[in-house]
Amino acid sequence: MKTIITLTGKHGVTLKAIAHTDLQELSVLANNPAIAANLRDSFPSPYSLKDAEIFFALIQQGKLDHVWGIYADDQIAGVISLTRQTDIYHHAAEISYWLGAPYHGKGITTEAVALVTACAFRELNIYRIYAGIFAYNDASKKVLLKNGYHLEAVKEKAIIKQGRLYDEHLMVKLNC
User: Fold this and answer.
1) CA 80, CA 160: separation in Å to the nearest integer?
2) In Å, how far are 25, 71, 90 from 141, measured between CA atoms?
C-alpha cells in the first residue's frame, strides 16, 4: 500500500486514506447511475458493498496509485485519485474524482482538486496533470477551470458510453 498524505483544506474538507469502516457508506454514495454516467465503464453500476471491498483491496495491495477518500466534516463523500504515467510520461498524472450526490454544489470537489493538484506539484515531482472529461460533463469542467486547468484538446468521438459516441475534453494544468 502506498503511503497517502492526508491533505486538509478549508471548509471541513479532508483528503485521506479510505477507512474500511467507510466502505458501506462509500458503496451507498457510489451506487448512483448519474455518477457512473460520468466515469469509465470499469466503475461498476450498480455499485455494491462487494465492489467497494474489491476497490479497497486494490488500494491496500498497492495496485492503484494515489487514492484519497474525500471527507466532508469527517464523513466520506467521494473519491479522488492521481495516476502517475510511465516511461517518457512519468512527469505527468491523470486526476479523476467523483462525489456523492448529497455533497454536490458545496465546493467540495473544487477544493479536493485544488488540494491534490498542489500536492502533486509540490510533493510528487509532477509537472503535468490532466483529466479526460466527457463533453457533456459541465460540472467537472467547471471544477477544473476554477483550479486553473485549461482545455488542451477536444478528442472527437473518443468515448463510447451507453452505446453512444461522445467527444472527450482534455483538461490540463502545468507546473513548469
Assistant:
1) 23
2) 26, 21, 24
Query: Using CA atoms in the order 43, 60, 133, 94, what is the torsion angle rounded to 10 degrees?
Result: -150
Which amino acid belongs to residue 74? D
Enclosing domain of residue 93? 7-126
Residue 167 CA to its chain's centroid (Å): 19
**pLDDT tens profile 143-154:** 999 999 999 999
**Which CATH number fits the domain that encloses residue 37?**
3.40.630.30
Rounded average pLDDT over 39-47: 93
Cβ proximity of 49 and 31 under 8 Å = no
Q: Considering the domain boundaries, does residue 162 fall inside one?
A: no
Number of domains, the chain: 1
Res 123: pLDDT: 93
Name residue, grid cell 467540495. 108
Residue 120 lies in a domain: yes
Mean pLDDT confidence for 67-93: 96
